Amino acid sequence: GGIGLDTSKELLKRDLKNLVILDRIKNPAAIAELKALNPKVCVTFYPYDVTVPIAETTKLLKTIFGQLKTIDVLINGAGILDDHQIERTIAVNYTGLVNTTTAIMEFWDKRKCGPGGIICNIGSVTGFNAIYQVPVYSGTKAAVVNFTSSLAKLAPITGVTAYTVNPGITRTTLVQKFNSWLDVEPQVAKKLLAHPTQPPLACAENFVKAIELNQNGALWKLDLGTLEAVKWCKHWDSGI
């Protein structure tokens, strides 16, 4: 749903061979709609919960790679916004993304004779500057930005490139109502939506543009219908 569904629709306007959707919730109507948009593309669905152990993810990926042989791009897009669910927010938004990425390296890493690949991680503008009333959610998105930047720098070793797309506030069910940390601001959703937002389709169009640009290490900001490359300031360097 939301950005994920609209982005899938935009992708199907391109010359794809396969689109594989992994989701915890089965939505036959949405899958049927996607299949009808471009019959030339093979659209398949697999049930998947990003919070499962890496071994389980690897087993599923082995099945998918066995059928398709080649996968070019992995989009990590699972996310929840509810600072009452601290452990689950971290598990879905960050741990699940890290684990899924780690699992696919078994098939992509050039040190294991893999072909390499491209990872597109969905972050958020809150990864740059937090919505301070939801520090758990914002913290996970900052972690996604840092993790992805590290992946990009590791590309010469692994053969796997990476970048983030970071949407601004987008009018999806995710932001219609959500809980702040320790209820510090019960009206956080209402106050947030009082400011300018963007529709999911505008976000999806720029999302696919970012995928097509395919710039390793890029930090894309997708806000108010625009696509902008963010330059990250270096305040410290490990020197190694």
What does this structure look like?
With 240 residues, the chain is an alpha/beta fold. It has a single domain, classed as Rossmann fold. The protein is built from nine helices and seven strands, in the order αβαβαβαβααβαααββ. The strands form two sheets. A five-stranded mixed sheet has the order 3-4-5-6-7, with helices on both faces. A two-stranded parallel sheet has the order 1-2. Helix 1 packs across helix 9 and helix 3 crosses helix 4. The longest helix has 23 residues. The protein is globular and about 50 Å long. The mean pLDDT is 97.
The computed structural class is alpha/beta
Question: What does the radius of gyration come to?
Answer: 18 Å
Q: Provide the CATH architecture.
A: 3-Layer(aba) Sandwich
Side by side, the strands of the main sheet go 3-4-5-6-7
Name of the CATH class: Alpha Beta
Helix content: 40-55%
Kindly give the count of domains: 1
**Global morphology:** globular
Strand-residue proportion: 15-25%
| Whole-number mean pLDDT | 97
Encode the helix/strand succession as letters. HEHEHEHEHHEHHHEE
Contiguous low-pLDDT stretches (5 residues minimum) are: none
Please provide the count of β strands. Answer: 7
GO molecular function: alcohol dehydrogenase (NAD+) activity
Pfam families: adh_short (PF00106)
Protein name: Alcohol dehydrogenase
Catalytic activity: a primary alcohol + NAD(+) = an aldehyde + NADH + H(+); a secondary alcohol + NAD(+) = a ketone + NADH + H(+)
